[in-house]
């Protein structure tokens, strides 16, 4: 049986994000980088993205992550959900999740220092 | 005549040059690598030799092997320095090697990582001239357990683009495309031992435009450092790089004005103290 891969735009609150096995997180101070062992690509995470990614455990849906974040930070749930969904789709587009078809060519964004996000 | 013994980190070596003018150029370039203690003497020195022939070619070799034959001394010197670097890397053992220059300012290690043409050598040379102690150029060997950069005072390689700032050194007896300059020619100073890295500045020479420094966040710093790793070239370097970033203040320095760039490095260091 072939598993149908999701397009990043199809990631919705019910999606359970799980990093591919080849993706490793390397913490550095209050930020982190995600390293793809099979491609050698690095992706910088800023403080907020690092916090969100720390909730990815392969079992909790995006809706569940949003609940936890909204409660932990006393933030508006609707705003949090929009931001988290956007970020998850971006990570999915980079091919970092199981079950999601990435489209972006991974590259270290070192020259310009990255965009500060995922 | 007793051959001068030099030291590439832990590997002693000698260089025999038949041609007197070429010998003076090479000995001047290598002078900061002269072996001043018995460190490394437990190993047999590698014996380099450079031999011109009647047709104007130079052959360069290591021990019994010929490494290269070239039509000019420039090529022979380049081959010599490249091979000395390999000896240095091999003798350094395990550790992190970055494509970077390094100096020490008041005992604080300053790392200047960057690709060729980024301006790290010119910036390092400028910092040495204004008082920094020289540690290394092109490659920086980091002891990961201590976060220190190892002293390997190889000649600083300045390209002709830097000639306007270091014009007095581009008038040697042999016209070289690059100038391989001993740091002590810039300013007489003693070679210092290893220094703990506390400041990382990524130089980006622009040729024109403003000279300015921008503080980098830790993830950006780690990514930038990772792009300049020479060894090991896999994910095993990342935890060591992360520890280095955690100990350091990191920034990008876009520069066209070398003096101002030096000021900004010192300012960054003041902030770190």
Task: Please tally the helical runs of chain B, counting DSSP H or I stretches of 4 or more residues.
Answer: 7
Helix-residue proportion of chain B: 25-40%
Along the chain, the helix and strand elements of chain B come as: EEHEEEHEEHEEEEEHEEHEHEH
Q: In what range is the share of β-strand residues of chain A?
A: 5-15%
Structural class determined from secondary elements of chain A? alpha+beta
Low-confidence stretches of chain A: 106-118
Task: Assign a percent range to the helix content of chain A.
Answer: 25-40%
Mean pLDDT of chain A: 88
Number of strands of chain A: 3
Query: Largest interface: which pair?
Result: A-B, 23 and 19 residues
Mean pLDDT across all amino acids of chain B:
90
CA-based shape of chain B: globular
Q: Largest beta sheet of chain B, briefly?
A: 5 strands, mixed
Largest sheet of chain A, if any?
3 strands, antiparallel
What is Rg of chain B? 19 Å
The best one-word shape of chain A is: globular
**Strand line-up across the major sheet of chain B:** 1-2-3-4-5
Q: What order do the strands of the largest sheet of chain A run in, or round the barrel if closed?
A: 1-2-3
Structural class of chain B: alpha+beta
| C-alpha termini separation of chain A | 32 Å
Q: Using the CA coordinates, give the radius of gyration of chain A.
A: 14 Å
Plain-language structure description:
Chain A is of the alpha+beta class and 118 residues long. Helix content of chain A is 31%, strand content 14%. Chain A has 3 helices and 3 strands; from the N terminus they run βββααα. Chain A has a 3-stranded antiparallel β-sheet. In chain A, helix 2 packs across helix 3. The longest helix of chain A is centred in the last third of the chain and has 17 residues, at 77-93. The N and C termini of chain A lie far apart (32 Å). Mean pLDDT of chain A is 88; it is low at 106-118. By secondary structure, chain B is of the alpha+beta class. Chain B has helices spanning 20-30, 73-92, 120-129, 183-186, 218-226, 238-246, 258-272; strands at residues 6-8, 11-17, 46-52, 58-62, 65-70, 96-105, 108-113, 133-136, 139-143, 148-149, 156-159, 178-181, 195-205, 212-215, 229-231, 249-255. In chain B, the strands form 3 sheets. A 5-stranded mixed β-sheet of chain B has the order 1-2-3-4-5. Chain B has a 5-stranded mixed barrel with strand order 6-7-13-10-9, surrounded by 4 helices. In chain B, strands 11-12 form a two-stranded antiparallel sheet. In chain B, helix 3 (120-129) crosses helix 7 and helix 5 crosses helix 6 (238-246). The longest helix of chain B is centred in the N-terminal third of the chain and has 20 residues, at 73-92. The termini of chain B are far apart. The relative contact order of chain B is 0.14. Classes of the chains: A alpha+beta (118), B alpha+beta (273). Chain A binds chain B through residues 24, 26-33, 35, 37, 42, 44-46, 50, 108-111, 113-114, 116, and chain B through 214, 216-224, 226-227, 235, 238-239, 242, 245-246, 252.
């Amino acid at each position: 049986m072939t598993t149908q891969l999701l397009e990043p735009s199809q990631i919705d609150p019910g999606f359970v994000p799980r990093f591919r096995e080849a993706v490793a997180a390397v913490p550095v101070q209050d930020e982190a980088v995600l390293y793809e062992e099979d491609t050698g690509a690095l992706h910088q995470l800023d403080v907020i993205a690092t916090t969100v990614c720390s909730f990815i455990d392969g079992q909790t849906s995006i809706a569940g992550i949003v609940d936890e974040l909204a409660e932990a930070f006393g933030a508006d749930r609707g705003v949090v959900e929009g931001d988290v969904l956007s970020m998850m789709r971006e990570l999915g587009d980079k091919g970092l999740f199981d079950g999601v078809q990435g489209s972006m060519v991974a590259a270290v964004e070192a020259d310009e220092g990255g965009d500060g996000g995922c | 005549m007793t051959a001068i013994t030099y030291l590439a980190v832990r590997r002693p070596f000698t260089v025999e040059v038949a041609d007197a003018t070429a010998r003076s150029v090479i000995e001047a370039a290598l002078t900061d690598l002269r072996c001043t203690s018995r460190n490394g003497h437990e190993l047999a020195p590698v014996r380099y030799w450079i031999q011109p022939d009647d047709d104007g070619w130079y052959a360069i070799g290591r021990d019994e092997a010929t490494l290269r034959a070239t039509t000019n001394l420039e090529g022979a010197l380049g081959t010599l320095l490249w091979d000395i670097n390999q000896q240095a890397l091999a003798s350094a053992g395990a550790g992190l090697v970055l494509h970077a220059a390094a100096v020490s300012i008041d005992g604080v290690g300053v790392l200047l990582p960057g690709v060729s043409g980024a301006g790290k050598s010119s910036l390092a040379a400028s910092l040495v001239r204004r008082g920094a102690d020289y540690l290394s150029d092109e490659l920086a060997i980091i002891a990961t357990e201590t976060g220190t950069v190892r002293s390997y005072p190889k000649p600083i390689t300045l390209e002709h683009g830097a000639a306007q700032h270091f014009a007095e050194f581009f008038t040697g007896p042999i016209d070289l495309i690059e100038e391989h300059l001993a740091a002590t020619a810039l300013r007489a100073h003693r070679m210092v031992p290893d220094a703990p890295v506390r400041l990382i500045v990524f130089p980006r020479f622009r040729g024109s435009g403003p000279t300015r420094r921008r503080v980098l966040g830790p993830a950006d710093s780690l990514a930038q450092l990772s792009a300049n790793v020479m060894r090991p070239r896999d994910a095993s370097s990342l935890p060591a790089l992360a520890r280095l970033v955690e100990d350091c203040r990191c920034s990008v320095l876009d520069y066209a004005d070398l003096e101002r760039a030096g000021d900004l490095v010192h300012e960054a260091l003041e902030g770190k103290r």
